[in-house]
């Protein structure tokens, strides 16, 4: 199968062709149509760039990006590539600088991306150097359009993207307003390479069902069980998703659903140090877990008091990196900060919960590789129209992701609902 002959095998997106996880041509098309298309991509947090001159390096899809705070306080995002011969301009993860100087031939750029200096512009003793028509003012780092919401930095390559507020929609905005209601403090980072396609991770975070089945820690210690109050909310176009639950609300009858699962729910288990499981109430609502996924590259997390962003960075069709940025609030007392740092161990590459997600992505990726004509079956929670879910035994938000994905990718979609077997 190639990107040209793909026909999506179900009108309700209840099937996902395995080819989309492996085909290099599809991956290239994603870079062009999704990551360089009319999507808004998470680039970082304004709290990481508190002072003028602060910068960070990141990726948008596979394009290296440099995000800076200029002297006037404005945040800019550029392709992190020198306009001379294309060297990566900044190689550090973050820092503070008055200018950005390329290591190769020392061209220097201002914080606003303008080319400031070229060594030996007139050559030496009248020979060499720049040509007479060299127009320094016309050379500028390739700049993205940037918009912020509550200190979250989003960027897009497209001049035709809808305004960020419309792209996110009121459901996502109210969730970001909840999470970023107060000034934040960055607590640290984790990175995780996963040998699998980046969309398998998007599937994972739009899959409330796996949260109470794959993650023994969740189910056993009750941070998240399928028998608790919870559900999934999407934006009007179903491209973003919010999975949420309330710990301590287990329905005894529903709990019976764990009956013959394979040691997922170990009722008798206890931790010697139960502080890992504490939820210090800090939000006005009773929600104790939120996994907010914004198309196409980011996740915002609240698991009890562990708060972070997770950015999805692509490295080819078969590899991705998750970049975790942990934060608390500036008015946290030292005990709360300690608690958040302790609970940061729930996630990251060795996290009590998220360790399994990387493995799940990899075992799907590996096993579907030789089966490119096959497809995944996405029908838990029902087929047909895509709608918000009032419980956690659902994977419907995955279908929402692929509905928008197909629209941007220009794939034809089978007209008969559920036509694929
Ligand atoms: S490639 Fe950057 S100065 Fe030459
Ligand atoms: Fe998970």
From TrEMBL:
The keyword Transferase does not apply. This is 3-phenylpropionate dioxygenase. One of its GO terms (molecular function) is 2 iron, 2 sulfur cluster binding. It comes from the Bacteria. Keywords: 2Fe-2S, Dioxygenase, Iron, Iron-sulfur, Metal-binding, Oxidoreductase. Belongs to the bacterial ring-hydroxylating dioxygenase alpha subunit family. Residues 42-141 form the Rieske domain. InterPro entries: ARHD_Rieske_2Fe_2S, Rieske_2Fe-2S, Rieske_2Fe-2S_sf, Rng_hydr_dOase-A. It comes from Telmatospirillum siberiense.
